Amino acid sequence: MIKSALRSFLLFTFFFVAHISLSAQTKDALPGSKKADTVKTSFVARMQEFARKEAKESARDFENDKAILAQHKILDEVKKTMQVAKSYLRTGVDTTGARAQLIEIEENYKTAVDGVLTNKGTAQTFRNVTATSKILKELLGKAQQRKVRLDMHQQQLNTFRYQLDSLLNAPSLFKFSTDSAVLIKYLQQLGVVAYEVHPIDSALKRASNNVQGLLNQVNMQVFKLQTSSDEIAQYQLAMANNTFKREFGNIWEPASNYRPFDEIIDQASKKGMLTLYFYAENNLGKLAILCVLILTSFIYLRSLKQIYIEKELLNADMEGQLVLRYPLFSALLIVINMFQFMFPAAPFILNVIFWLIACVSLTILFYKFITRYWMNIWLIMVGLFLITAFDNLILQASRAERWFMLLVSITGFIVGTTVLFRGKKEELREKLILISIGFMAFLELASTLANLYGRYNLSKTLLISGFLNVVIAILFLWTIRLINEGLFLAFSVYTRQDKKLFYLNFDRVGTKVPPLFYFLLIAGWIVLFGRNFAGFDYIAEPLRDFFSRSRTIGDYTFSINNLLLFIVIMAISVIISKVVSFFASDKSLTTTKSNKQEKQGLGSWLLLIRISILAIGLFLAVAAAGIPVDRITIVLGALGVGIGFGLQTLVNNLVSGLIIAFEKPVNVGDVVDVSGQGGIMKSIGFRSSIISTWEGADMVMPNGDLLNSHLMNWSLAGNRKRMSIAIGISYDADLEKCRQLLNGILDAEERVSKYPAAVVQYEQFGSSAIDVKIHFWTKHIAEAYATKSDLIIVINTTLKENGITIPFPRQDVHYQPIDPPNSI
C-alpha cells in the first residue's frame, strides 16, 4: 500500500510539472487564450479521473493489509488456544480415578445400607441407623465434590471448543487477497491450521463425551445418596419420637426373623472401620494437635518430676503428687479427656478408643495408690464398660445379643447395689463417685426391664449409658484432681513468681478445685451421656441453630459461633502469653551463672514474644470470625481520633514499651537506678514496667517516664560498681607499709575485682591526719555495700595490729579567766 501511494504521488507530480510547462509554452506561442483553456480543462479531467482510480486502489490495498493483520492475529490465537488445550488434556481430570472412586462409593454405599435399607430385619436399631447416616453423609460429600470437579472440567472443555470455533469462524479469515501468490500462501497456511486443529477438536469432543458420561453416573449416584440420606433421617426422627415403643417381642418369645450372627459381626466391623476411616481422614489436623499436646504435656510433667527428684521433694506414697508418678500416662489421661470435646459428632468407635486409652492410663496410676477394694471395683466397672462398648458396636439386633445384654445389665445392677450398700465408703477418695454408681444401678435395672419386654433400642442405650456414666465420672473427677495437682506442684517450685503475671490465687491452688472445673465436668458428662440417646440431636439442634444462625447489624453479618470463636482464640492467646511470661521469667530454679544469664536473656525478649503471640492470636481470631477488613479500618480510624483527643499518654507509653523491647536499654533482671530510686527490673509490660526497689516495694513506672528518665543501668556494664573508702593515717605512721597492708587486704578479698586493680591513694595532709582514699571495683553491685562494710572492719583490725593509728580530729580549748568588774 505504501509503494502504491508513493507511485501515485510521483506520477501526479510528473503530470503537474508537465502541465505547467505546456501551459507556459502554449501561452507564449499563441496570442489567443481559448485554445489554452480547452487544453487545460481536458488535462484537469484526466487528472481527476486518475486520482479517483488511485484512491480506490489505495483503499483496496489498505483493506487487504488490514485483513492480513487480523488473519495473522486470529491464527496466532488459534495456535495459543490449541497449546493450552493440549496441556489441559494432558493434565486434566483423571477419568480413570473418577471411575474407580465411583465404584468405591458404590461398594461403600452397599456396606452402609446393609441392615437398614437392605437386609432390614424385623426393626431398625439406633446405632445401625446412626452409623449408616454418618457414612452416607461422607459418601454424599465425596460424590458432590467429584461432581463439582467434573462440572468444572466439562465447562473448561466446552470453553476450549467454543474458543476454537469462534476463532475459526471469524469473518476476517475469509477475506482473500486479489494477489494470487499471496492467496495461495494463505490457503496453504489455513490448510496447516485445519490439519492441526482437527485432532485437538476431536480430543476435546471425546473428553467432553467421557466427562458427560461420568457426570451422568455421578448425578445418579448423588441422587441415590441424597434419597437414602433423607430416608435415614426419617428413620432417625421416628426413633426419636418413639423412644419407648416396642420393636421386638418379649425376650422369651421365639424370634420372627433371624440373620446369622457372624454376618452381623462382619457388617458391624465394616461399618465401624468405615466411619472411623472417614472421620480420621477429615480430622487429621485435630488428631495431630492432640498428639502434640500429649507430647508437650508429657515433657512438661517429666521436667517437673525431675525438679522434684533433684530437690528431694517426692513423697514415697505419691500423695498429692500422683500426676508426677507416670508423666506419660498422666498426660494421656488429661489431654484425651479434655480434648475429646474438640471432635464433634465423632463416631462411637473413636470415642471407645479414647476411653480405652484413658482407662488404661488411670488404671496404671491407680496401681498401689488406691485401696485394693476400690481398685477391684474400678477394674470391674472398666471391664463391664468395655464389654458394653464393644456390644454397642454391634449394629443389628439378634436374640443372642439380647440375652447377653440381659446378663450384663443384671450384673451391673448387682455390682452397683452392692457397692452402695456394702462398699467401703470411708476408703473412697472422691465421694461424688457414689452418685454415679447409684445412677448406674438405676439405669441397668431399667435396661433389664426394657430388654425383657422388647424395647431393644432403649435397653441398649440404657445399658451403655449406665456404665459410661460411671467411667466418665471417675475419669473426669481424677482428671480435675490431676490438673489441680499439676498446678499446685508447679507453683510450689516457682516460688519467686509475681502473682500479677498469671492472675491466680496461689494460696488456693492445690487446696480446693475451682467450681468452674466441676461445671465443665457436669457439662461434659451431659454431652457424652446424651449422645447415646436417639433424641439428643433433635434436642440439641435448636441450640446449634441458635449459635450458628446468621445475624445482621447494619451491613455486618455475624453468628454467635463466630463471636465465641473470636473470644476463645483471643483468650487462649492471652493465656499463652501470660504462661510464657510466668515460666520464662522465673529464676527460682537457676543454679549457675550461665543459666542465670540465659534466663535474663530470655526475659529481655518476653515483651516481644508476648506481642507476637497476641498479634498472631488477633490475626487468627479476625480470620476465624470472618470480620471484614474495612470494619477494622473504621475502628482504627476511630481509634486515631481518640488518640488525637485524649490517648496521647497511653499511646506514648505503648510506643515506649516497643522502643524498650527493640533497643533494650534495660532488660528484665537488670539492676537500675531511676531518678535516685534503685532496684531490680522485674518486668517490662505493654504500658508500664515494674521495678522491685531495695526497700521491698514494687514501683510501677510508665514506659514513657522510664524512657525519658535519667536511667542508670548497672547491669549493662557487667553489674560492677566502684566503691571508695576514706581514712586518715597518723603523721608518724610508715606510709609505704600502710600502702602494702591495704593492698594486701584488697587482694585477699574475693569480691573485689582484680581488673581494674584497686588503688590506694594518699590525698592530702589533713588537719590531724594524712587523708587516704581507697578505690576498688566490686564484681557484682549486689555485693558492693557488704564488701565495703567488711573491708572497713578488716582495715581497722589490721591497722591496729600493726600499730598504725587512725587519729580523730582533736581541738584544744583554752579557758582564759576574766577579772571580775569593780564593784560599785
From TrEMBL:
Localization (cell): Cell membrane
Key word tRNA-binding present: no
Main location as per UniProt: membrane
Residues in Mechanosensitive ion channel MscS domain copies: 649-715
Residue intervals of the Mechanosensitive ion channel MscS C-terminal domain: 725-806
Annotated SUPFAM superfamilies: Mechanosensitive channel protein MscS (YggB), C-terminal domain, Mechanosensitive channel protein MscS (YggB), transmembrane region, Sm-like ribonucleoproteins
Membrane topology: Multi-pass membrane protein
MF term (GO), any: mechanosensitive monoatomic ion channel activity
UniProt entry keywords in alphabetical sequence: Cell membrane, Membrane, Signal, Transmembrane, Transmembrane helix
Transmembrane segments: 284-301, 322-342, 348-370, 377-397, 403-421, 433-454, 466-495, 516-540, 560-584, 605-627, 633-655
InterPro entries xref list: LSM_dom_sf, MS_channel_C, MscS-like_channel, MscS_beta-dom_sf, MscS_channel_2nd, MscS_channel_C_sf, MscS_channel_TM-2
A GO CC term attached to the entry: plasma membrane
Signal peptide limits: 1-23
PANTHER family linked: MECHANOSENSITIVE CHANNEL MSCK (PTHR30347:SF1), POTASSIUM CHANNEL RELATED (PTHR30347)
Family membership: Belongs to the MscS (TC 1.A.23) family.
Protein name in UniProt: Mechanosensitive ion channel-like protein
Organism from which the protein derives: Pedobacter duraquae
Lineage, opening ranks: Bacteria, Pseudomonadati, Bacteroidota, Sphingobacteriia, Sphingobacteriales
